[in-house]
Design brief:
alpha+beta, Trefoil (Acidic Fibroblast Growth Factor, subunit A), 6-stranded antiparallel sheet, 17% helix
């Protein structure tokens, strides 16, 4: 009887763990390459978040899911900070994972644009996106309040840490160059040998008084 109770208690504990969502989430190391600044998102020791990194400070960021939901947490392993919005901007905050999961301003959702970029907005506010201008400074307004030309500044390329954008661009440029046919000078035709040149054949007309005789090309 006791072994059966022990097994039942273990099964009950496992069910409680699953129901409560205490399951390991998927964690992925990434670099977020800004579409406007052409640099990577980075968190500085004072909590400032900018897109001014050249990507050499590895590892950069991790993106993890919150249990089985589509809600994401963005974490900086270097500074041990989670990316969260305050009233005016995006900052890095020193929180435990449990604390970050309880903060609505630290939970994001990912969406994909038609031109192949990723965008991240708050779960509780679908108009509050992470974005940076051409200088790597944050966009502090909601998407609907931004000029349309700046909407692309909320787009990012999500790359693995070992991905090198400079090498990628060089490879793309090389392949593009190979696909374009190179111009080659026209080949000059050699003139035929002198003994093979034949003069045009014309009939010769001789007029001897009233008798007219035409010589053909065969000499007759």
């Amino acid at each position: 009887m006791l072994p059966q109770l022990a097994v039942s208690a273990k099964i009950l504990c496992l069910l409680m763990v699953v129901i409560c969502g205490a399951v390991p989430s998927m964690v992925r190391s990434v670099r977020l390459y800004s579409q406007c600044s052409h640099m990577y998102v980075n968190v500085f020791p004072n909590g400032t978040v900018m897109a001014r990194s050249d990507g050499n400070d590895q590892p950069n960021l991790t993106i993890s899911t919150r249990s089985f939901s589509l809600e994401l947490l963005i974490h900086s392993p270097v500074q041990d900070m989670y990316l969260c919005f305050n009233r005016s901007r995006l900052v890095g905050r020193r929180l435990t994972r449990f604390q970050a999961e309880k903060q609505p301003n630290c939970l994001f959702k990912e969406e994909f644009t038609t031109d192949g970029y990723n965008r991240y907005h708050l779960v509780k506010n679908e108009d509050r996106y992470i974005g940076f201008n051409a200088r790597g400074v944050q966009l502090r307004r909601n998407l609907k309040n931004l000029p349309k030309r700046l909407h692309k500044c909320t787009g990012f390329m999500k790359m693995a840490p070992e991905f090198d954008i400079t090498k990628h661009n060089l490879v793309i440029a090389q392949h593009a160059g190979d696909s374009v046919p190179k111009w080659r000078p026209l080949r000059r035709l050699r003139p035929p040998p002198q003994n093979s040149i034949k003069t045009p054949c014309h009939g010769v007309r001789h007029n001897h008084g009233r008798h007219i005789k035409r010589r053909n090309c065969h000499g007759t």
